[in-house]
Amino acid sequence: MHRPHAYSFDSWKTPRLPPQSTRLMIIIFIIIILENYKNNSHTSHLLLFIYLFIICFLGWVGLGVVCFRGTRGKRREEMGFPVRFPGVSNELLKILDANMDEAPARRRAREAFKDIQLGIDHILFKSPADGMKIKESYEVNSRGLEIFTKCWLPETSSLRAVVCYCHGYGDTCTFFFEGIARKLASSGYGVFAMDYPGFGLSEGLHCYIPSFDRLVDDVIEHYTKVKEDPAISSLPSFLFGQSMGGAVALKVHLKQPNAWNGAILVAPMCKIADDMVPPLLVKKFLIGVANILPTKKLVPQKDLAEAAFRDLKKRELTSYNVIAYKDKPRLKTALEMLKTTQEIEQRLEEVSVPLLILHGESDIVTDPSVSKALYEKARSSDKKLKLYKDAFHSLLEGEPDDVIIQVFNDIISWLDEHTKETNAC
């Protein structure tokens, strides 16, 4: 039976075309006509007719393009009533209802809600923070963007190694990863994380990726500074990427092939299924529109909380991730992710870093067969693939407690194995 993919082109719909979309389609069509006649006075009427047909058809069905792992809970507007959090005042709900496109609104929401987040009934938030040092800061990078960073360091044990985290699409390092980082730090690992520009608490238009390569360069810049700290510069360093963060981690490694001692990839996004890629003409059209309207939220998405979280109670807790991106993906972001996965697919043989790849066998958000392909094609001599029977996409957040514990044990055992020689010296 065919399984849907989150990073796919299978979400065609037939809604009534609203007046705003009609105006948008007309504007795009006019621009295309002007551009074609400006660049080529002999543009055929047939080509213009094809453009018009595509515009009207895609406008009618809703631009069925890449459907990303989205909201982890339906948008309030789509559901018709606000998400209710027990004990949360109306004043706080107003903060959460604000437009989150810019960082100040996201920061206000997180600050007002962080204590409530840490109090939810989830195994990740039952890990004690005692015996570790936790630091949050904002740092201005070389592009002048204010980036949110966080680290968790053990205080009662010696530091074994450095783990640098790459988060997933629309996500942040301030919610579920808080519990993941505490677990790693309690096992002796220094954990460092950042929100990409435009994600979480970092400056920038929410969930807008104008260039995936530039995002990767921002990640490299920050973690290079982290590893230059004399207190940790001699320690092994590992990348840790989840979902889209797996693609970020792989790109970091490909740009810095000798800079890392290993990479942990949890349900990595590194390929879109061939049968889900749009026809060439449609793809060229979308690229053209992205050059004109790159930030527009034109890409439909499914609510994949059901697909990503197997445990029903944990699935309900996804709404507490109040600064996660909850809208339709922006067109340029979608195309950048498509381009990135296509590049990674072509470069799997170049991956040489020691690898731990973890994937749920029942994941329909990112296909576990892609992780198998990465494992088989990577030229790393030191690589390990762990598949978890019946598990969904969110291995560390959405599975029953026993599975989450098993995944943690596998990660920590692998890290211990790859740091024991260093720590024995």
TrEMBL record:
Any one GO molecular-function label of the UniProt entry: lipase activity
Keyword Membrane recorded: yes
Serine aminopeptidase S33 domain boundaries: 159-400
Membrane spanning residue stretches: 21-37, 49-68
Any one Pfam family match given in the protein's UniProt record, by short name: Hydrolase_4
Cellular compartments per GO CC: membrane
Keywords: Membrane, Transmembrane, Transmembrane helix
Protein name: Serine aminopeptidase S33 domain-containing protein
